[in-house]
Structure formats: structure tokens, C-alpha cells
Fold this sequence. Notes:
CATH architecture of the domain at 6-109 and 226-270: 3-Layer(aba) Sandwich
Radius of gyration: 23 Å
CATH topology of the domain at 6-109 and 226-270: Rossmann fold
CATH superfamily of the domain at 6-109 and 226-270: P-loop containing nucleotide triphosphate hydrolases
Strand order of the largest sheet: 6-7-8-3-9-10
Largest sheet: 6 strands, mixed
Order of helices and strands: EHHEEHEEHEHHHEHEHEEHHHEHEEH
Amino acid sequence: xxxxxxxxxxxxxxxxxxxxxxxxxxxxxxxxxxxxxxxxxxxxxxxxxxxxxxxxxxxxxxxxxxxxxxxxxxxxxxxxxxxxxxxxxxxxxxxxxxxxxxxxxxxxxxxxxxxxxxxxxxxxxxxxxxxxxxxxxxxxxxxxxxxxxxxxxxxxxxxxxxxxxxxxxxxxxxxxxxxxxxxxxxxxxxxxxxxxxxxxxxxxxxxxxxxxxxxxxxxxxxxxxxxxxxxxxxxxxxxxxxxxxxxxxxxxxxxxxxxxxxxxxxxxxxxxxxxxxxxxxxxxxxxxxxxxxxxxxxxxxxxxxxxxxxxxxxxxxxxxxxxxxxxxxxxxxxxxxxxxxxxxxxx
Length: 347
């Protein structure tokens, strides 16, 4: 399995229009997306994007329609050329790659899962899953064995001879995921990959991705417009608006410390109990007699509250996941305060 590699996006701009280069100074000097469109009939797709994506994590890019999130992911494998900036992947600048180097990079370093599945209708499930390996020139026996392995991992063993039109939407997207994983690329790009699915199937696909990521440890860039999906999947989250990053951080950062009223409007209806972790709501241990019952620091407040109810207690010692030592105390009072958005009172 390929070792994961990180991604660094530095000072990235994209202006759509014939005079994009000439208008760069105006944008750098503060011209907004609406002003650029009104005065010059150009579209500002990305405005000074800077993101560090460490290897082996799920990085979610979130925003509403027109925010620039799909434009951003297409810069990583250079399906779109930037107006200015750098995309550094494994120490190489994708922006300056030669056509031959870029072709090799796309074949071996990245794989993509699309919103509309993008399966070949005249090929079976197995043949679709093999397709990327076929393009790479992998021998048939090896690519079939690899494809069968990943089809089994996504729950499609026994469907190898079916055609896409014989599958549900969720099953088609599992084929798309298996095809991407079969390539064994260190970077997995997922552009609104689950957005076309029904809600229950969508949650099921999220679970499959999270379970697989424990094994594969890919660097995954996941695009979504859904905050609940972003909070569930993302090790890190960047929220875009009008081509600019409004806030970036962990799910805890986004929910507990929204950067402005725009982000606050997103998180207002979030089920905080499923996002906030025990170590974010705990109090210190000084002067406290700690209970015998313990919980890991990365446990959600919803899970911790359920443990308290089942055990008939109102206090849990919070332990560090690495050392196993108690690092804090979590009470039912603090759980309720955090869930009802009064966590700041206990900071």
C-alpha cells in the first residue's frame, strides 16, 4: 500500500476570464468577487487560499454552491490551472509539472470519486473497478485480484458481473470508491461524493469511508456542502465563501469557536453532543476525587452521557488516549452546559 503524502496549498488564486493575469493586482489589493464581476466581467474562483493538509488524514472543504470548493479540489490534480500560487504534493509543485510528469502524477498519486459515479455503462462492476489499473498497464490477473479485494471491502462481493444500471445509487458509489482504492494512490479526491445519495445511504457510505480510513490511511480531500457530513468525517475542515477561506480547524474549533456570524449560522442547529469531545468539556483534576468510571478524551459527549445513564453515575474521569492517565473530570452538568451552547462559561 502506498505511503500517504501531504498537500500544501500556498497563495492560490483563480480568476476565470481572458484577462485573469492582468487583474491579479486588483484582487490582491482587495477587489471583491462581486466588484470583479461587475467591473470586468471576470469571476473570482479562489482568493489567496492557504491550506496545509497533513498526510493520512481526511480534510474536508465545505461551502455552499459557488463558494469555490470544487474549483479548489480540481487544482490539486491540475484539472484547472491556477492564475497564481502553488500546490505542493509530496514536495513537488503540481503547477509547474510538465505534461508527462502531470500525466504520471494523475495516474499514480491521485484517485477521484465523483458525485455522479462516472461509471462506464458498458462495463461490469469488476471491469469498472479494474479500469484505472488497466490504464496503468497492470497485468490482468493482478488487477482482477486487486479489484475483487476492494469490492469485497466495500460490501459488493457477488456483484462483480452486474452492470451499473442494475445497481442502486449507493451501490454504484461503492463501485466508484472501490475503483479509486484499487489504484492505491496516496491521495483520494472526493468531490461531493455522497451528495446524490439518499440520507440513510449517505450515512452508510460515510461509515464505510471512516472504517476503511482506519486501514488505508490515505490523504483524503472531501468536498461537501453539508456541515453534519463535514463534522463527522473531517480531521480538519476549511469553510469557503466566495472563493475565500472563512475558517479552518477541527470540528471542535468550528462548533465551539465559530469565526463570524456566517459560521455561527451554520453551526446553530448542529447536534453538539455528537461533535464535542469529552476532553473539550472536561474540568481540571486539581482537588478532585476522581471516580473509578473512565472515558477516553475523544469520546463524544453523547456517548459519555449514555455511559453515565447506563452506569447510574454523574461523573467520569477523562483519560488520555496515549498514556491512559486521568487528565480531567467530566460531569453531567458540564455535558448539558456544552450541548446547550454554554460551554464558553466553563472555558
